[in-house]
Automatic annotation (TrEMBL):
Pfam families: Form_Nir_trans (PF01226). The chain crosses the membrane at residues 28-51, 57-84, 105-127, 160-180, 192-217, 237-258. Signal peptide: none annotated. It is found in: Membrane. The keyword Membrane applies. The keyword Transmembrane applies. It is a multi-pass membrane protein. Keywords: Membrane, Transmembrane, Transmembrane helix. It comes from Aliivibrio fischeri. This is Formate/nitrite transporter family protein. Belongs to the FNT transporter (TC 1.A.16) family. One of its GO terms (molecular function) is formate transmembrane transporter activity. GO terms for cellular component: plasma membrane.
Amino acid sequence: MSYNKPSEFVQTMIDVGEAKIKTSSRDLILRGTMAGIILSLAVVVAITTIVQTGVGIVGALVFPVGFCILSLMGYDLVTGVFGLAPLAKFENRKGVSWGRVFRCWGLVGLGNLIGSLIVAALIALSLTMNFSVEPNAVGQKFMAVATARTVGFENLGMDGWITCFVRGILCNLMVCLGVIGNMTARSVAGKIAAMWLPIFIFFALVFEHAVVNMFLFPLGMMLGADFGITTWLSYNLIPTILGNIVGGLLFTCIPLYLTHVKTAPSLDA
């Protein structure tokens, strides 16, 4: 069969979580950096497509290409390890502690940020001819989106913060399903299909993804958008990260773990 049953791929989720926790600091940062680079370029492709066509759903259809590439290359997004790494602790795997779980989160997230900032700087240079001209239509779109999802939330105060947090939950519910999709199939085509569907959903519904936002908002600021780092952190990145943790861990990975590993006794028991 080309499909792994839930009882099989959930065990793979635990094994992968353990492997990531025990990966060296160098490799976690390197894999995170490359994941940030590839995902950021996928955002550029999606926004460019939206500008060219004027149809947002087209951007959502092409965005998952970056996620599929980085997953097949074995690179890591912090949103994925938010859900997978704790499973190894729940199973009391040898050498796994909460300290190591948080270390994994932090190093992968640092790598994602490094990769995202590298691409943001390069894309800002590209869109402005080395900062010699005003941003083109794609650059203007980046600025508008970044402003709407920072200043727009800030203007609403706590209501905006909560909205961003909830969108972060919904985002990583889908993104972790994309990560798991890579484990459900045995062929490359099957893996791509299983990853593509939930990633398309999150982007189409404009949910908040920590790594996408590590690229999108610094790029907006580099291009001249009228908001600062404090606004970005307070009203977007921090609530997005917290929401991503809740969505990936509590809404996606723990339910799969509970019903396929820690199953309740059957009615015939």
